[in-house]
Amino acid sequence: MTLLAFGINHKTAPVDIREKVAFAPEKVEAALRDLLSRGAINEAAILSTCNRTELYCTLDAADSKPVMEWLGNYHHLATDAMAPYIYTHTDNRAVQHILRVASGLDSLVLGEPQILGQIKDAYATASHAGTIGLQLNRLFQHTFSVAKQVRTDTAIGASPVSVAFAAVSLAKRIFARLDEHTVLLIGAGETIELVARHLKEQGVKKIIVANRTVERAEALAKQFSGEAIPLVQMPDRLVDADIIISSTASQLPILGKGAVERALKQRKHRPMFMVDIAVPRDIEPEVAEFGDVYLYTVDDLHEVIEEGLQSRAEAAQKAEEIIDLQVDHFMGWLRSLQAVNVIRQYRLQSEQIRDEVLAEAQRQLSNGKDPQQVLLETTRLLTNKLLHEPTAQMNKAAYEGRSHFLDQARELFNLKDDH
Length: 419
Fold this sequence. Notes:
The structure is a single chain. This protein is an alpha/beta fold. Helix content is about 55%, strand content about 15%. The chain folds into 3 domains: about 150 residues, Beta Polymerase, domain 2, CATH 3.30.460.30; about 140 residues, NAD(P)-binding Rossmann-like Domain (Rossmann fold); about 70 residues. The mean pLDDT is about 90.
């Protein structure tokens, strides 16, 4: 039995190739069943995201050709066209790969957490499709456990590596508890949405979204139980805001020194934290001259991001060590499966001998034989019968000069060396 990780990702292929082998979520179950119906493949799961499409399978033989052919047929692509972009990992390398993917070590952004949720979804879909068996089930459960360990034991996801994350991280340096403060977000684009998401994760309860198009502000505010206002009202609401983060497409500053000065007087000079993510800038640089204002620009954020990337790179080294150890643990379990059938046969044989000896003891007791004598004879007979075949095989091995067999027997029965 071979474990296979087979796929394509952002490192091996451009987006125009990746999109050709992607699977729509609603079609994955049917695709999995079709894959297993072709034979040679015993278990399968499909992970398909914007950055990767991967198949995890168990095969009778160490040959990925059936998977390649099926993928090509399914997407109507020539295998020669796909081959340069495909990677295959088997057994321990396959285990290492999925552990690295789940831990964020193989992501476009090092340490990003979303991929683990996507792997859990892939597992749930394959389970529902009935294409997960003993080995893949254990592999995915092991993967979830290891990814959690990596998150717990390393700082792989703690440091900011995006502009949105960096903005929130800077806010935490100024205010120990973000949940006690009001946030004003200026703009309603993708970056501001990410900022809002990070703020919500930090427990922020009051978010105000100001945007030129009020409908977009309302749509964003609704996601985070916030308040939407038109941009023209923004100067009047500065007094309420402890944290202001701005990212618009305006070509001119939309927040000036005068408006900030009036807000500070109304706030009785309680500090204001501001992050201007926009290029060109949304906030006049002169605002930084106020002693109660902490103003950061996108260049400041890039410095924080560089620090975060370095921190994550250091954490990644520790994560790799954890993964190497956990690969060995999983492969040990996988190898132990080889003993299951032998153990089952040996147990059945032993139980058969026991039943035969027990039947003879019961016969003797029914004939009135002394129970003490029957007990002694029964235990002697059971011992002889259980030891007969192993003893015969060891004598045969010794006669044929196979001393390694005797060494293995000594290890098997945990015997001390008389010499």
